[in-house]
Amino acid sequence: MYAVIRVRGHSKIKRNALETLEHLQLRRVNHMVLLPENETTRRMLLSVKDYVTWGELTAEELGRVLRSSARFEGNRRVGEEELKEKYSIDTSALAGALLAGQSALADFNIKRVIRLHPPRKGWEAIKRSYRAGGSLGYRGEGINPLIERMMPGQEGGN
């Protein structure tokens, strides 16, 4: 499963890329969506590679994101108690089911778009690819430290 984060804003964006970002529901900077790894997704990501970054998410990191930043419909936080009460599942099991493709966020009434904070210590460079020392494009496992820097309420930023 890919975690896709929008890095750049809407100024001077190509029409094709704008339409693709709308299909992905990435309307604002620092918003993240989870997408399955398939050919359609790869083609869409390649068409917006100059505006987003993406990579493979680990189960631990997805569990942390669900606990700290994910929201139910109605803008309520996703809590362990509510998940256990309504769906009899905890966030780590939910993260595993999502990564395995056995379920989707919509099955649990969780919003598709996850709003994150800007990364601590900032973006590397928002006009260059990740391979060239920037922030854009495919990161692979490098998406996990970035998401860790973008989660709210963490200590150690300065």
Task: Describe the protein's architecture and organization.
It is a single chain. Helix content is 35%, strand content 15%. It has 158 residues and is an alpha+beta fold. The chain has one domain (1-153): Ribosomal Protein L30, Chain: A (2-Layer Sandwich). Strand 4 (71-72) and strand 5 form a beta hairpin.
CA radius of gyration is: 15 Å
Class inferred from helices and paired strands: alpha+beta
Distance between the termini: 31 Å
Task: Provide the β-strand percentage band.
Answer: 5-15%
Averaged pLDDT? 92
Characterize the biggest β-sheet. Answer: 5 strands, mixed
Predict the CATH topology. Ribosomal Protein L30, Chain: A
- CATH homologous superfamily (4th level) name: Ribosomal protein L30/L7
Low-confidence stretches: none
Specify the overall morphology: globular
CATH class: Alpha Beta
Count of helices?
Answer: 6
Domains, number: 1
Number of E strands: 7
Which H/E pattern describes the elements?
Answer: EHEHEHEEHHEEH
In the CATH hierarchy, the architecture is 2-Layer Sandwich
Helical proportion, percent range: 25-40%
Q: Strands of the biggest beta sheet: in what spatial order?
A: 6-2-1-3-7
Descriptive tags:
5-stranded mixed beta sheet; globular; two-stranded antiparallel ribbon; single chain; alpha+beta; Ribosomal Protein L30, Chain: A; 158 residues
